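[scheduler] slot 2 assigned
[scheduler] job type: sequence-to-structure, two independent chains
[scheduler] chain ordering preserved from manifest
[runner] begin chain α
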Amino acid sequence: MTPVPGSVQPHAARRNRRRTPLLKSVTIYGGIVSLLFLVLFPFYWMVTASIKNFREISIERTLIPREITLKNYADLFEQTSILWHLFNTAWISCFVTVVTVILASMSAYVLTRFVTPAAEWIARISLYAYMVPSIVLIIPFYIGLRMAGLVNTHAGLILSYLSFTLPLGIWMMRACFQTIPKTMEEAAVVDGANRFQAFFLIAMPQALPGVVSTSIFVFILCWGEYLYPAVLINGDRLRTITITLDALTGGGQNIKFGLLMAASTVATIPILLIFLLLQKHLVRGFAAGGFE
């Protein structure tokens, strides 16, 4: 008996419609799980390797530690000045972040409120300056800082950091101020406020999400910077955390994996805490700055 086409096709179409959302969900969640694995596994290996003994790290290479030990952390704090280097990195990063946000906010405000062809070119030049590799600037910076007597000082390191944090901050804050309407500032000026009052009392509170996201990016850039500290800093008491990590590699010959993973874990914890505490503000800053 030949089936009636009109009675079979609707059932097959309904089955296909049910399978399509299921297949799409499996594909999406499978991709998310794979991405999370690729991102989180290095962190898992770093943390677990820091609490393994030498045999499990270098010889057996176990995925799950059979014996947990804190010897790597004890040796790290005894053999290195990592806590002092963390302090150096933290205060330099905070100082550069504050200076960058202040200067970048004022510059970006001027570029967005006084729209001229020159302002557009200045904004582009700031982006181009950020795109210049640090390796290109390191020799001129070293010569200039040596002539000024700022080599092997934190002041010279701060000036070198500003060379790449300030252009990035200007570009990000400019995108943020472009989304803020001028009407409230113009009303404040009509009521008798000057330009500085309109900037600090009207514009900056509205730009707070962009300030937070810019601060986070600048802080992370300073925290992970390696080239400038490696070239400009010689004294152990002035070093930053990236130089400590480099020293633990032993030049690629005698790498102390336990100490290196313990130091990497200690260096990563502040950044993770910042992300956990300011995650909402960071997402809000992306939206405010047009990074969606």
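[runner] end chain α
[runner] begin chain β
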Amino acid sequence: MALIYIVEDDGDIAEIEQIALRNAGCDVKIFKDGKSFFKQLLEKVPELAIIDRGLPDINGCEIVKKIRNIPDYKKLPIIMVTAMSSEMDLAKGLDDGADDYISKPFSVMELISRVKALLRRTKPQTEKRIQMDGLCMDNDKREVRADGTLLPLTFKEYELLQYLLLNKGIVLSRDSIMETIWGIEYEGESRTLDMHIKTLRQKLLSYGERICTVRNVGYVIK
């Protein structure tokens, strides 16, 4: 039973999320502000956190950035919930360290699907080390280095790169990537994939150029 923390000041939304996730077999705790959330982290770190962007005491993005700067918590998978839907707002959430996002309003099934997909990605990997020239992925340490330089990848960026590297030279369809990494149907979710590809290319330094777009199909790493 996965332990999930929900940071949400809207009681109705928090209750809906809690009921849905409990019905899906998760153990859920709700926090109305960042202060109580961080206090509980000192007691126990969950398998996943769902954090609303608009909180009364601190912006959700600030919570995510703070988590990523604390060694004991920095690998905690995080889903950001936001009422904002512009590409700039969503990109900021990902840049700050969120692994995925859900825009309000969202369906219960979408929430469960996103949570299950992210939890699946946290399981230990069978491939301990994947290398392509000077680009090296170490799954034991969960690190990626480019010519020796440690790359600051988010959880989803790491999983996306791993999927590309395991299928080096193979064109992966957008549908396949979305289903494998996010566990949901691709329709209507193009921004999620495109933004992650964009940030991943930037973070991979010179190796970012090896992620090629195959028009009307998907992506391939060469």
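[runner] end chain β
[qc] chain β: The longest strand covers residues 3-7.
[scheduler] slot 2 released
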